[in-house]
Specification:
This protein is of the alpha/beta class. It has one domain: Protein-Tyrosine Phosphatase, Chain A (Alpha-Beta Complex), CATH 3.90.190. Helices cover 42% and strands 16% of the residues. The chain is built from 5 helices and 4 strands. It has a 4-stranded parallel beta sheet, with helices on both faces. Strand 2, helix 3 and strand 3 form a beta-alpha-beta unit. The longest helix is centred in the first third of the chain and has 11 residues. The protein starts with a helix and ends in a 5-residue tail after the last helix.
């Protein structure tokens, strides 16, 4: 996640992305949330389809304790989370799906072309 944020900042200077994030329960998610929170502007937490997925509410609760002023939403269904995250985006806004490697392929498999 640290490298992702550094690359986004280098490729898109001055632009603050919306993040769609879901992660498995065996991952150390707090440092990930810190990197994302310091950089992004809107945050959507969802649950990858895995019996090892960490609950999005736990992620959001941890995130919102640190970043009280940032938009933070929990949407359990990944496809619904993507649809909601895309609302309000302008043409040049960035949307980044990250966290679990299961998340982006899942959205592609569900027929989402992004």
């Amino acid at each position: 996640i640290k490298t992702l944020v550094a690359n986004l900042a280098g490729l898109y200077p001055g632009r603050k992305p919306t993040f769609l994030f879901g992660v498995l329960e065996d991952k150390d998610y707090l440092p990930m949330l810190k990197y994302l929170g310091d950089y992004g502007k809107r945050f959507f937490f969802t649950r990858p389809y895995s019996n090892r997925a960490r609950e999005p509410k736990e992620l959001a609760d941890s995130f919102c304790r640190i970043y009280k002023s940032k938009e933070c939403r929990v949407i359990l269904e990944p496809k619904d989370a993507l649809r909601e995250a895309k609302k309000g985006l302008k043409n040049d806004d960035l949307l980044c799906i990250c966290g679990s490697f299961y998340l982006a392929p899942l959205l592609i498999k569900l027929g989402t072309p992004y």
